[in-house]
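Protein modeling request. Please complete all fields; requests missing the sequence field cannot be processed.
Requester role: graduate student
Desired output: 3D structure, token encoding
Chains: 1
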Amino acid sequence: MISKILQSLEINALNDMQEACLEAAKQKDVILLSPTGSGKTLAFLLPVLQRLKTDVKGVQALILVPSRELALQIEQVWRQMGTGLKVNCCYGGHATRIEKNNLAHAPALLVGTPGRVAYHIRKENIDAATITTLVLDEFDKSLELGFQDEMDFIIQSLPFVERRVLTSATNLIDIPPFVGLAEERANIDYLQQAEHLPNITLKAVSTSAEDKHKTLLSLLCFIGNQPTLVFCNHREAVNRINDMLLEKGIDHGVFHGGMEQHEREKELLKFRNGTYHLLITTDLASRGLDIPEIACIVHYQLPNEESFVHRNGRTARMRAEGTAYLMVLNEEIPAYIKEKPELIKLPTEETLPSPSPWSTVYIAAGKKDKINKVDIVGLLLQKGKLAKEELGRIEVYDHAAFAAVKTNKVKQMMQLTANERIKNKKVKMEISN
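Delivered output (433 residues):
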């Protein structure tokens, strides 16, 4: 079973942290501490899978996460694993009606944010008595965001939990008693293991408050078309940078908590599929985004030490390499950065990054319409006359799907498929703006 899962995920072998978690979770509760990007999601999903029974109805395993983005990411990994067992997500900003309908045919695995899961338990949309496995992923972040009361209520509502797994990418000082971890538990700590630490090169760019936008533009020209996250401390800074980049005609996405959920999801998928090489964001994107191809992190505004670690963890994932650029005022490096970054000079001549070769096509049908990736590939390759290399990443949601198509082919493809059907159904398609 595991070998087939690794093949589906295109992974050669489990790392030692994942092996340790898999073995420990067979016998006892687990506290798993490991850096961002080291493979914690698979480390806890494999033990969850081993405890699920195909002949049992109802939700058997519950994973609580601090953000909807992390919930969707875990759901995606589970689907890629090809277990054949149903998974659903519950989170704020998603229609409760759709979630209630999904829960009427209960999944084996439910992933959700504390507030929304508590809602469904109170409404009796979830039979908590069938849940025997509980995972608290990014537990410290859930506490930081104020979910303690909801988690307390949920855990007290689970009378038959037999195994608990708690994960974090930072050291946990206090674990509240309501979690209910067994005294004889496994503590797996890989936070300082060299092979699991991100392989990140730190570089610094000196600027002044007045020249910060100009310096950022020069830095982005220097980085070029490498997939890059620019982190800000506040959404106002994100919006100001957005205005500047729009004025310069540089393609990019934005991501922060003031946006509607569907807008955030669209910006993320465009970043994942290569339509955008650049995403301007707050710390909302510092956890829960598993995008392995991120090459560079830019700290437009420097955060506290913990956020600095999590931001950098977005790149150099799973033993890859990455670069983090610090924009510092008057060459002042924060004391918590022990490894002094190389101070670099930016070129005086600027060449704006070239546009991405990919565009995103929106398809107004999804999983609830019985449409899958194979159907979309068939339509776009056969009827749209695309070559395989001209079709990129495809993501299918409940009532919509998105496909990356080479920009120089997208208009021709749209014309060729204008009157075509998917599974005998006329489906609206348009280029996503």
